[in-house]
């Protein structure tokens, strides 16, 4: 499926995987609506991408703002949801459940709200792509909360694919990817984590946003794939 003359909305498109997806789809000829919370950050990130990309700043936790956004876009062919948060990790015995609740509020609910709001303008036969995380299935101690958030999204993919067909519903489940999400860690700790992962991962490197954006583009473009979660994790689930 050629992306020329296709319209795509990327919610969470101001940095990391979302921004790389905006770049990749625009380069493939799509018209892209890039949405993010921080107006200045979003404009700076998309300013060099040309007229096929339009930036829209709003809080995706606000259903009214989402509805207003999709009134602006008009009909779309594809919807990509890369919204995420930074809370919910930790050993279960000491896990702050209010932090986990905030993690759901930052990722699970906004992705669902955006998907539901976007259905009003998604063309029949289009696609929705969620971005989850490999924590949903790699059984790593200290990530049960993250597994709950991402696993809840992934558990809906198959049912939604059947319910919303012929529109397609899929997800990409990334592993360790070098994005600004990790900048919350002290630099030395991040460098050590990445070094360890390079040694452990079967592919011998940490992921890049381009890797995940490539998987997203595949799911958008392949009209015969639905109800699928692509594990784009460098083999992290295997170690």
TrEMBL record:
Gene3D superfamilies the record matches? NAD(P)-binding Rossmann-like Domain (3.40.50.720)
The yes or no answer to whether the keyword Oxidoreductase is present is yes
Q: Does the keyword Oxidoreductase apply?
A: yes
**Source species, domain of life:** Bacteria
Q: Which GO terms describe its molecular function?
A: oxidoreductase activity
- An example of a Pfam family matching this protein is adh_short_C2
The protein's name is NAD(P)-dependent dehydrogenase (Short-subunit alcohol dehydrogenase family)
Organism the protein comes from = Variovorax beijingensis
């Amino acid at each position: 499926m050629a992306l020329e003359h296709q319209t795509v909305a990327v919610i969470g498109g101001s940095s990391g995987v979302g921004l790389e997806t905006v770049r990749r789809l625009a380069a493939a000829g799509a018209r892209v609506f890039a949405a993010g919370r921080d107006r200045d950050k979003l404009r700076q990130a998309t300013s060099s991408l040309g007229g096929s990309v339009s930036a829209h700043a709003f809080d995706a936790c606000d259903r009214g703002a989402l509805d207003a956004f999709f009134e602006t876009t008009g009909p779309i062919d594809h919807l990509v949801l890369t919204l995420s948060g930074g809370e919910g990790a930790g050993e279960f015995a000491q896990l702050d459940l209010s932090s986990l609740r905030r993690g759901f509020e930052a990722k699970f609910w906004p992705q669902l709200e955006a998907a539901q709001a976007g259905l009003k303008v998604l063309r029949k036969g289009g696609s929705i792509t969620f971005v989850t995380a490999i924590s949903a299935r790699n059984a790593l101690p200290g990530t049960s909360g993250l597994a709950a958030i991402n696993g809840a999204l992934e558990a809906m993919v198959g049912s939604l694919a059947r319910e919303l067909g012929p529109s397609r519903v899929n997800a990409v489940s990334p592993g360790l990817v070098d994005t600004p999400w990790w900048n919350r860690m002290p630099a030395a700790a991040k460098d050590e984590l990445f070094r360890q992962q390079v040694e452990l991962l079967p592919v011998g490197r940490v992921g890049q946003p381009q890797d995940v954006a490539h998987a997203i583009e595949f799911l958008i473009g392949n009209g015969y794939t639905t109800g699928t979660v692509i594990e784009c994790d460098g083999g992290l689930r295997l170690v």
